[in-house]
């Protein structure tokens, strides 16, 4: 799956310059469960405890979440050609409770420590609620893990900086639209970036980033932006470059009349590296303002 951006959508007045004519994914995207990774190979430090997994469920029936069993997973060490016993550990990121009150994450762990410079294969072979071949292709049931010969102290995460990347600009951006897949909206766009210390750069794809917004009338929340109706957000991940993001205010939707005044939003951020530690770090961020003429 390719995602364009993970952003904050703050809607205002009314301009729809261009609308797509058709949408190829008639059934819509599937729920984003499976191994939490943007690619098929994940790089981790040698002191990582395991990999993240979201259990399968029917998005129309949250109670359908499949109960995970260790026997539903397999872990193999490619260098020793050895199968390793599996342990499942439920992860609780307490500082994200307000953003994700029903969040359920699990860490799939080998019962013996990772070995430096080894490669491991993780696979899920258990029951799912998603049986069609086309939708199963969108879900990660297999993950290859490369272990580097370095350890990450959780305190390194406190060195991450959350900053604006240049000045805000006026441009068009693609957003999802029912039936017609997407539409291009004139928007005020602010590029932002999570700046990592050198020791974390090899693991940038593994770190979870949560861009958030709030205002006087909007409580703090995360908006997982997809560029069209066919794309599916991955929890805590942006597109191909996981450290870059954007926020934007689009001129659209007369229904949002309460936003047609000067409004200030607080753009903030949180991040975590649950494969290593359950600690969540935050930055208060900056103000982003929509101004009417």
What are the SSEs and their pairings?
Elements: E1 7-11, E2 18-19, E3 34-35, E4 41-45, E5 51-54, E6 73-77, E7 82-84, E8 86-91, E9 105-110, E10 119-124, H1 133-136, E11 142-148, E12 161-164, E13 169-177, E14 181-195, E15 208-214, E16 221-222, E17 244-250, E18 263-272, E19 280-290
List keywords for this structure.
293 residues, mainly beta, Immunoglobulin-like, 6-stranded mixed sheet, 5-stranded mixed sheet
Structure description:
The chain has 293 residues and is mainly β. The chain has one helix and 19 strands. The strands form four sheets. Strands 1, 2, 12, 13, 14 and 17 form a six-stranded mixed sheet that branches. A hairpin with a 7-residue loop joins β18 (263-272) and β19. The radius of gyration is 20 Å and the shape is globular. The two termini are 39 Å apart.
């Amino acid at each position: 799956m390719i995602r364009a951006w993970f952003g904050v959508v703050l809607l205002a007045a009314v301009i729809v310059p261009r609308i797509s004519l058709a949408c190829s994914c008639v059934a819509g995207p599937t729920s984003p469960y499976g191994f939490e990774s943007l690619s098929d190979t994940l790089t981790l430090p040698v002191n990582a405890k395991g990999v993240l997994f979201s259990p399968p469920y029917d998005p129309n029936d949250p109670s359908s979440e499949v109960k995970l069993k260790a026997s539903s997973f397999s872990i193999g060490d490619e260098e020793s050609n050895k199968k390793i016993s599996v342990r499942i550990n439920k992860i609780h990121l307490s500082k994200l409770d307000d953003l994700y009150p029903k969040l359920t994450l699990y860490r799939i762990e080998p019962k013996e420590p990772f070995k430096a410079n080894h490669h491991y294969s993780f696979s899920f072979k258990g029951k799912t609620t998603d049986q069609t071949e086309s939708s199963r292709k969108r879900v990660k049931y297999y993950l290859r893990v490369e272990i580097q010969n370095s350890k990450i102290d959780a305190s390194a995460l406190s060195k991450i900086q959350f900053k604006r990347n240049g000045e805000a600009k006026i441009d068009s951006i693609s957003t999802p639209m029912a039936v017609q897949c997407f539409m291009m909206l004139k928007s005020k766009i602010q590029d932002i970036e999570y700046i990592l210390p050198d020791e974390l750069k090899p693991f940038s794809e593994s770190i979870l980033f949560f861009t958030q917004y709030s205002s006087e009338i909007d409580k703090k929340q995360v908006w997982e932006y997809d560029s069209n109706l066919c794309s599916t957000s991955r929890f805590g991940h942006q597109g191909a470059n996981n450290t870059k993001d954007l926020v934007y205010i689009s001129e659209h939707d007369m229904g949002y009349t309460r936003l047609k005044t000067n409004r200030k939003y607080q753009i903030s951020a949180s991040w975590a590296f649950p494969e290593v530690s359950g600690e969540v770090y935050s930055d208060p961020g900056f103000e982003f303002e929509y101004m009417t003429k």
